[in-house]
């Protein structure tokens, strides 16, 4: 048992449910990384004996922690610490991946898997309004949060809009920041579509998940200040680590 549990003391003199004291203790130490992602949690009966509480008390705490994304139960293996899913807001506002991760207190990192100039093909030609003679830069990136791979992204950008982009350091520098500072390309608006899919062998290996594990598949077309599409991206997010967060408001004309 992790020595951190020695700090877990049940206070029976306060009007706070015992299970809730266990739950808040666990959340505090998961969020400050004292209990690390993937760490095995002591069995219910062991915590019951240590804290001198009933099994339903510990079970209630664990059930709520599982429901809120702090614990993950795996049959025949046990209960493990996990971080709650990242509640992505990027389907309703424009921000970079780095900005989003930093907002949630996570350390972003990008690994550039490949970058090359290729001939355009039908799907990209349609999305970016190009001709058969155009070429695009194709870059593949694996993006991390706190050193855990969370999303694989394939991006297409017209060469004619940003010649020389292929030579930029897009592991250390933000793609959008580079496009803005060096090519005067700023995002004016975007179109995103969200699909459900599963991981093929290639993505399961990259993302460190089981083959056929669920993924959020998000396509993006970004338009610049002149309403010209300059980016088409295909992103595969781990569904066990990411969720979409959307706020909806009643239209003022709705009756």
Automatic annotation (TrEMBL):
Q: Which Gene3D superfamilies match?
A: Chorismate lyase-like, Winged helix-like DNA-binding domain superfamily/Winged helix DNA-binding domain
Please name the PROSITE patterns in this protein's record: HTH_GNTR
Q: Which UniProt keywords apply?
A: DNA-binding, Transcription, Transcription regulation
UniProt GO MF annotations: DNA binding; DNA-binding transcription factor activity
Q: Which domain of life is it from?
A: Bacteria
Pfam families for this protein: GntR (PF00392), UTRA (PF07702)
What InterPro entries does the database record attribute to this sequence? Answer: Bact_HTH_transcr_reg, Chorismate_lyase_/UTRA_dom_sf, Tscrpt_reg_HTH_GntR, UTRA, WH-like_DNA-bd_sf, WH_DNA-bd_sf
* GO BP terms, alphabetized: negative regulation of DNA-templated transcription
Ranges for domain HTH gntR-type: 16-84
PANTHER family hit by this protein: MANNOSYL-D-GLYCERATE TRANSPORT/METABOLISM SYSTEM REPRESSOR MNGR-RELATED, MANNOSYL-D-GLYCERATE TRANSPORT_METABOLISM SYSTEM REPRESSOR MNGR-RELATED
Q: What is this protein called?
A: GntR family transcriptional regulator
